[in-house]
């Protein structure tokens, strides 16, 4: 049996065609953990890039619309202050001027 290292694997084809699953199964537990760590880091980077692109593509009109929705929810009393949700982490609730 040939011992493989995660460094010799091409990551892209693993999931679409599952041809590397037998090879992955042959990896040591340490190499499997490292492969998982690498894949999770790749996903985190990808998620962050997607979020950043979406955030940067938000138009002023979209921000204005979102702000208006928030103002309406505040006026309707539909907002719960974070200090009421997380009282121990944010301290006690105070009113302006106190």
What does this structure look like?
By secondary structure, this protein is mainly α. The protein has one domain (about 5-90). About 65% of the residues lie in helices and about 0% in strands. The chain is built from 6 helices and no strands. It has helices spanning about 15, 20-25, 30-55, 60-75, 80-85, 85-90. The longest helix is centred in the middle third of the chain and has 29 residues, at about 30-55. The termini are far apart. The model is unreliable at about 1-15 (pLDDT under 50).
Brief digest:
This protein has helices spanning 14-17, 21-26, 29-57, 60-75, 82-85, 87-90.
Count of domains: 1
The end-to-end distance, rounded to whole angstroms, is 74 Å
- The fraction of residues assigned to DSSP E strands is under 5%
Structural class call reads: mainly alpha
Shape: elongated
Number of helices: 6
Biggest pleated sheet: none
Mean pLDDT level: 75
Work out the number of β strands: 0
Computed Rg: 24 Å
What order do the helices and strands come in, and which of them pair?
Blueprint: H1 14-17, H2 21-26, H3 29-57, H4 60-75, H5 82-85, H6 87-90
Pick out its properties.
98 residues, mainly alpha, 6 helices, 64% helix, disordered N terminus
